[in-house]
Each structure stands twice: as structure tokens, then as C-alpha cells.
């Protein structure tokens, strides 16, 4: 064993004035702040997404949309004239890869539940909030989501790279959500999986009122195409789903029906499932053994903290996005939240348990991934929730490096995109978040994003958030 000491010298011969060649439409261009083909971010604190220790005084170079160098600032000499961002006093982390996102939002009418696509605002808000890659966690309008993905790729819309799930796979239920796709009795889910996979969907989500037979067929059809299936389950227990080969379970441990003692097979009773979790000691051996079983079966768990955020001690809109909501919608959210306030002490207990369980699952070696889920009573909105999630994971006891890794590389690994994105490493896409402040000292620094880079294009986060002020709920 021997060590070699290198001094890295990077000599750039490229004409530094060349701009990236992708065409962007006129509605996208105003939000692009940096489009040089070659640039450097110097003297910056890097939390690289691999889980390794944060590093100060680093330089990251980007060339043609890819990261071309990561190393100490004093080990690189940058060619004269290279476009340089002085990152002193700032932190650079990988773009978020978040796995329970939606292009829709809850917009209740009187007492009727309603979900509506936020086609114009949410895609750009995800990007402004640092999410450079997302998986949608079930769709009510798959054509819209597929078209959004296409328009983003063509430079005609601002937004993240997308893994578009097919429509929710669900049976008859008593939820009264008019937009929710329902498979009629007698029709198997397989043809639906095939149909939407042929149209471009790349993963699927099983919902709350399926039989094990339904899930089995969904898995067979998706897996035959190398696609993954996640589930927000209720009628099927986590243990049963893991046994059948599901890839991922949504909402952490908050919707786990395994501890409902009166459970009827293939039947959803989410209130009893919730009571079972309430009654369960946080260190119950039964939960430990469930976690170990999920690990053995290689099942990921997606925690969706914002949608479960209690009111007490937390913002009405996690991440502070009240200004993004249309004033009428904000009033509605306030009204609904006032109703929720009655059960807030229970929400607090359950939220605390969820934080405890996801930490335990992670430390046991579980595949923990992260998402936001902009549904519930309308408090969770795209972008702001992504920001809040990182901040909250750090504040709840994950190290900064762990929290960043959960929000980036772990999601990329789940999507099998870890060789392309998810960490700040040479050769990967320049999917990056540059923020003011030192994230390792102040988790709130993530609220001060300057630029979000996607494939090396730097978008002005504040300008994007400013552009949606008062519009969420309408567009
Ligand atoms: Zn969801």
C-alpha cells in the first residue's frame, strides 16, 4: 500500500463564452440565470450526497451539463476567463430526488373532496425548491403528467426530470374522490398497467382498497417490464406486500395496517390501522421484526413528512409558502386546518413516532427514501415542502450528510439513476442546489436557495417562486 499525492491541475481550453445549445422557449428563458457551458463554483461548502462528511473550501466545475471536477479550491487552477461563481459563505448539495410528488393538489369544495392538477405552477415550483428529479406517487391525470414531462424535456416548461407513475391502481371505495381512477369489479389491473406503460409511464402505485390478488398481478405486469411498484396500502399489510414482492411502501410507517388486531384480509379500515399504530409502543418488538422483514425483502419505505406535519410548532404551509397560494385557497386551507386542530395532539404523537421509526429503519440498514405528497388538507405544496423536508430531517436528528443523502442519492438509487444523478461526483449530471449560508450549521439555509442547476443550467429559484405568488390553487 502506498499513497500518491497529486496536485490537480485543470486546464481549460474551451472557449468559455459558449452557451449551452439546448433551446428554451420564451416562457422558460427569463428564469435561467446561468447557461454557460463551462463554469466553476469556488470556495463553497459541499455536502455531496454520498453520506460523507461535509467539506469546506471546495470547487466544483461543470462542463457541458456534467460535473467535471470536485476538489479542494487550492488544488485547482481555473483557466482565466472561466465563468466563476464565488461560493464563499454558501453551500452546494445535489439536487433533490424525491419520490412521492404529485402534479395535483387538494382543493376541497364545500364538504366534497377534490383534487386538481396544478399543471402550470407545480412543475416549476418543484425545481425552484431544489427537486431536480421526482417520481410522481400516483396520477389522476397521467396524460397531463406525461405531457408535462415531455414539455420540460423540450425546454418549453420549467420542471424536474420525471418518473411518471401510471394512474392509481384502486378498487371501489368509500372515499368520494371524483378524480380517483377505479378498476371496476371483474376487471384485472394487468391490462391497465400494460396500457399506461406502453404510453410512457415508468412506474406504478397501488392504492388502499386492493386485494392481494390485484397487487400480485400489478407486480407481475410491471416487473415483466423492469418497472417498480409502490403502494399506499391499507387493505394489504406491509408484511403481505413485502411477501408478494412490492418495491416500496408510501408514507413511512403511518399507514401500516399490520398492527390492527381486528384486521380482515383484503379489507381497508384506515381508522383501525391508525388506532393500532397509536396503541403500539414505539419500541415494540413486532415493529422491529416488521422492519427487519422489509429489509430482508429489499423493500424501500418512502417517508412523506410534510403531509403529516402537525400544526403545533409547525408552519401552516410547511416551508413557508403561504404567499404562493391564491388568497381564497389560503382561506380554505386555514378553515380546514382549524378543523384539524382538534386532533392535533394525536397528530403530534404520530408524527413523533414516524420520525422515530424512520430513523430506526434507516439505522437498521433499511432503504429509506423521501417524498412530500402535496395532498392532505392543502397545507403541503410543491417546492416549499421539498425544502422543508430536508430542514426537518436535519432538525429531527439525522446528520446533515445523512439528510442530504436521503433526499438525493437514496432516491436516485431507488430509481436506478445513481450513475447519472443524486450526488456531487465527477461524471454525473450537474443537478445541484446552491444556497446562501452553511447548511451544516443552520438547516434553515435551504430556505435561501440561489440557484438550482439541472443538467448544468442554473435556474433562479427566487424568480420562479415570485412568478407563482397567489397562483397555487388556480393554475
Ligand atoms: Zn400521495
From TrEMBL:
Gene3D superfamilies: Metal-dependent hydrolases, Urease, subunit C, domain 1
Signal recorded as keyword: yes
The UniProt record lists the keyword Ribonucleoprotein: no
Signal peptide coordinates: 1-21
Domain Amidohydrolase-related positions: 359-456
GO molecular function: hydrolase activity, acting on carbon-nitrogen (but not peptide) bonds
Record keywords, A-Z: Signal
Pfam families per record: Amidohydro_1
Protein origin, superkingdom: Bacteria
Protein name: Amidohydrolase family protein
